[in-house]
């Protein structure tokens, strides 16, 4: 009997031990589950933070700003108090990036963010929207109070910024656009737009801050939406390249093409380059636009070459492109991607662009020359450049501005100028292209003057790629027969 009891007790102890052990394991499991949950929670928070904040400055991003502004406006609408929305853009920030480098630009943005933040209440939301653009939502703030905040923000910039171990001192300023809720708009998007319109006015008039007024909108709104449409077109293949041929006046060498960008707006129809190119220049969209043109022209050039037509394509660069550090890398990348020889693409740069910043232009031209890529000076004769200066620049071609060519038959002076440009260019070892040849008379004169290539309606208007290919094939077949 005793033995029986002892055996049972032993079994009970073993069971108790097992139970304890199991309990411990369960506790352990609970612990690690809890830790895992905490870790997940932490990761989720980090991701949420990243999704709602700007990495560089740690400030809320556009999404969080909109979220918070939305909440404030809802409350403000219910309780009947005004709110204010500011759009802030630093002046001449691009110059800092260009001259001192992106790293300095980044440090500067962080410093500005810090200074602004110190001037605001905890209920205000300061956000960075991208680049050098900031926005501030000020709940429960009327116009007079908004002016005080603007003063404080401006004031905070007056102390020069010392950057990179005090090596650089930079004086910053900003342009601000101000919109009031509910006066100017009742939703966040509308208010942001109004503030942006006012900010552009401030920039244009070189004022530090401008309050939105409804009559600003009619003009600016159309322009703003066009800027947005252009951005969309660049990003979504909404632009198209047209190709205008250039013929050699001597020999039987293949024609070449100038690639010209065109924009068929989905609702407004064809928008002229004179309208959207300056707009692209002003808004900085010229960079992505040129990169698109470069890529597209290189791809098309490769297609023609693959079919045995060894044509060259000229691409127009803008002054902003020359200041862009990535320009050379992008050009090089295009040649590599499409296996093009250096002569396949010619880069056209206008004369006025070269004169804008001759030192920098000359440096870029040197680097382009090192890639053995040819450069053409576009619109030559209109930029008042000192002619002797030309011989120091690494260029291969001059394009005589169409205004001289078109005037040749009526104006003796224009012939004199065209002749002088051709002779000057040849003396410097440069090729000459005349633009704007409209009829047989122009062609004959240019041939007689010894111009090397001619471009203009007399030869062909700019054509869509299909028509240009047909034109090229026809030209080749005609010249094979001869
Ligand atoms: Mg051109």
Roughly what percent helix? 40-55%
Strand order of the largest sheet: 8-9-11-12-13-14-15-16
Bound molecules: magnesium ion
Rg on CA atoms, Å: 33 Å
How far is it from the N-terminal to the C-terminal residue, by CA?
Answer: 126 Å
Outline the low-pLDDT stretches: none
> What's the CATH architecture of the largest domain?
Alpha-Beta Barrel
* Gross geometry: extended
The CATH superfamily of the largest domain turns out to be EAL domain
Major sheet summary line: 8 strands, mixed, barrel
Strand content: 15-25%
User: What is the top-level CATH class of the largest domain?
Assistant: Alpha Beta
Describe, in plain words, how this protein is organized in 3D.
By secondary structure, the chain is of the alpha/beta class. It folds into two domains: 62-212, 2-Layer Sandwich (Alpha-Beta Plaits); 226-481, EAL domain (TIM Barrel). It has 17 helices and 17 strands. The chain has helices spanning 2-52, 62-79, 93-100, 102-118, 143-158, 188-204, 214-235, 273-283, 286-306, 319-323, 327-337, 351-356, 358-370, 402-407, 412-427, 440-449, 465-481, and strands at 83-90, 125-130, 133-138, 161-163, 168-170, 174-181, 209-211, 239-248, 256-265, 269-271, 313-316, 345-350, 374-380, 397-400, 431-434, 453-455, 463-464. The strands form three sheets. The protein has an eight-stranded mixed β-barrel with strand order 8-9-11-12-13-14-15-16, surrounded by four helices. Strands 2-3-1-6-7 form a five-stranded mixed beta sheet. The protein has a two-stranded antiparallel sheet with strand order 4-5. β8 (239-248) and β9 form a beta hairpin. α3 (93-100) packs antiparallel against α4 (102-118). The longest helix has 51 residues, at 2-52. It is extended and about 130 Å long. Bound molecules: magnesium ion (MG).
